What we know:
The chain is of the alpha/beta class. It folds into two domains: 19-147, Response regulator (Rossmann fold), CATH 3.40.50.2300; 155-249, Winged helix-like DNA-binding domain superfamily/Winged helix DNA-binding domain (Arc Repressor Mutant, subunit A, Orthogonal Bundle), CATH 1.10.10. Helix content is 39%, strand content 19%. It contains eight helices and twelve strands. The protein has a five-stranded parallel β-sheet with strand order 2-1-3-4-5, with helices on both faces. It has a four-stranded antiparallel β-sheet with strand order 6-7-8-9, with helices on one face. A hairpin with a 4-residue loop joins β7 and β8. α6 crosses α7 and α6 (180-191) crosses α8 (216-229). It is globular, with a radius of gyration of 19 Å. The N and C termini lie far apart (47 Å). One of its GO terms (biological process) is regulation of DNA-templated transcription. Keywords: DNA-binding, Phosphoprotein, Two-component regulatory system. Residues 152-250 form the OmpR/PhoB-type domain. One of its GO terms (cellular component) is protein-DNA complex.
Amino acid sequence: MLTVDAPAVTSQNNTQIGQILIVEDEELIRETIALTLREEGYEVLTAADGRRGLDIVHTISQSNSENRPPLDLIILDLMLPFVNGLDFCRVIRREGCGTPILMLSAKGSEMDRVVGLEVGADDYLTKPFGMRELVARCRALLRRQRIGVSPATSLKFREIVLYPNECRVIVREVEANLSPKEFRILELFMNHPRRVWSREQLLEKIWGIDFIGDSKTVDVHIRWLREKIELDPSHPEYLLTVRGFGYRFG
């Protein structure tokens, strides 16, 4: 299920540059990924099933100890014992965990990728894969996570207030329950009101340049977001379609 290629380029400075959790039931794949990432300088935790993986996430999120750094990335297999990858994503996203997730699966159809991304995964890698590609995707996810932190305390547009550092959105004085992708789309729009974004630009900004899929994913997320922020989603006031170009906010 794994392609053995030349070793990934090792970091010149082998200091800890992030903590990664690998949740994978196939021991060979799990240990190979762990070894590769440790050689890159990452601190690596592993779990052989979804239930154990959730226990690790919960333990870290509930700990205030300075000796326990937060998770920077989760590498998650789709087919897992006890709690599968899709349910794992649903649980931690519902609990407000925004840690990037790279999903691994032997299922490579477009629908499988779309479902994985829509339940909260940030990227999707189909087995078999090479270690160089996996390391590159991990770096890209970590880079986007660190660059994507907004310095603004809050963003306000009419009856919508978004708090970037708290990952909260208030719509007409009621807190909206947005998924991580919906939150990032709205944050991008509110940082650039009235700017028109094409579907391709939104895919690159929110899903990243390595995303494998089509623009229908954007349309689905825009529809879901409208259902949560618009009084009448079929006649939106905030998220407007600009026919032939894409979408704009306001």
